[in-house]
Amino acid sequence: MKRRKFRSGCIHHIYQRPIDGYVIFHTRRDFLVFLTLFFCVKKKYKVRILSICPMVDHLHVVLEADSKKDLSAFVQDYTSRFVKEYDLSFGRTSGRLFTRRFGCAPKRNDKKARTAIAYSYNNATERNLCNHAIDYQWNMLAYDGNNHPFSAPIDLKSSSSAMRKSMRLVDSYHRTNTPLVYNVLGRLFQDLTRQESLQLTDYILFMYCDVDFERAYRFYGDRGTMLMAIDSNTGSEHDFQEEWVGYTDAVYADMGRMLLSKTGLRDMKDVLNLPIATRYGLKTFLLSQSDFIPRQVEKYLQLPEKKPARKGGNKRG
Q: What is the value of pTM for the model shown?
């Protein structure tokens, strides 16, 4: 096994993907559990986060670490804790979710650092989820100095008692550096209106965000220059081979809506908990409803990729 690359004094680009390329971030809760856990774990290690970008089927992190030991321990810690919570949300024992080794590429000069930062932040624009990197909620870029980038400002006087209670609970969990796991999020959101749910999502992300934006900006000069630069140049990454299926990830949201309507279930977790034979039937349903790419449907429903039959096999008779 190759030794993991690490270079002292450099920023490092971390890349992780799930086994079989499955989609794992199906719901808002998946993103919130991961991100609050990520930032809570981060406080245990000597690392500085310059960018974090969870996509539906993979993850990018650009960071600085004082040592290879800190970097490896940090990644392994947040990964194992998220896998445990993810599996608990399905009522199953913890197992593997990500591929065994994560990618790690040191960037040895400022130009390569800028390229890695731009590439990470621009993943969502590359997958046609938004027009600008700052418009993707889960890369945290919009939360630098803004506590409501994707919702209306919170007016406590007119907020419901359920909303105020949820905010107090978020404050309490954040104050004790406790991540918001699935059962906690279920309680926080259960009595909120749609608008309040959007507001609470913003509130949570703003409270927990621990990205060193100023350090990232210094590679470009300032915030404005960085935002302009990453909008102009998506960056590149030659150290990892990503599997991108189709031209957009927006289709996954369409699949989710169609599956919930078809099954009558309320949550994609319930759909993914259906027997594998039932999920193959849902794959057939989705392919009959739209021009989805079969591999995208398999990834979304967490179905093994069907390999083409071998030609020239042995014949009986």
A: 0.93
CATH number at residue 76: 3.30.70.1290
Q: Given its phi and psi angles, is residue 293 left (phi above 0), alpha (psi -120 to 50 degrees) or beta?
A: beta
| Domain carrying residue 200 | 149-208
CA distance 16 to 14: 7
β-pairing verdict for 47-55 and 11-16: unpaired
- Residue 317 domain-assigned (yes or no): no
Per-residue pLDDT of 46-90, as tens digits, reads 999 999 999 999 999 999 999 999 999 999 999 999 999 999 999
Looking at the DSSP bridge assignments, the partners of residue 48 are 64
Number of structural domains in the chain: 3
Burial class (CB in 10 A: 0-12, 13-18, 19+), 133: buried
* Cβ-proximal residues to 213 (8 Å cutoff; 6+ apart), any chain: 141, 144, 223
Instruction: Express each pLDDT in 228-283 by its tens digit.
Output: 999 998 877 767 767 778 889 999 999 999 999 999 999 999 999 999 999 999 99
